[in-house]
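Inverse folding, one chain.
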């Protein structure tokens, strides 16, 4: 997927609306941080960026996971 942004403001808006931290994922799924880590290790969720204790997820990926759970 290739995205194009007209301005830095558009990029910032996209990130704010479409990129989630692990904490935001826990809130969205109603689970603990440890459960998110298990989902990642179990290949159920895929962060697009991980660095140490920080992981970033696309909101659409988390929504897809939620839909798959019914």
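Residues assigned per position:
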């Amino acid at each position: 997927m290739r995205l194009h942004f007209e301005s830095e403001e558009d990029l910032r808006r996209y990130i704010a609306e479409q990129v989630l931290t692990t904490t935001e994922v826990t809130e969205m799924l109603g689970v603990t941080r440890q459960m998110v880590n298990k989902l990642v290790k179990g290949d159920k969720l895929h962060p697009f960026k991980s660095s140490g204790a920080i992981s970033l997820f696309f909101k659409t990926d988390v929504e897809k996971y939620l839909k798959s759970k019914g």
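The chain has a mean pLDDT of 95. Residues 38 and 68 are 16 Å apart (CA to CA).
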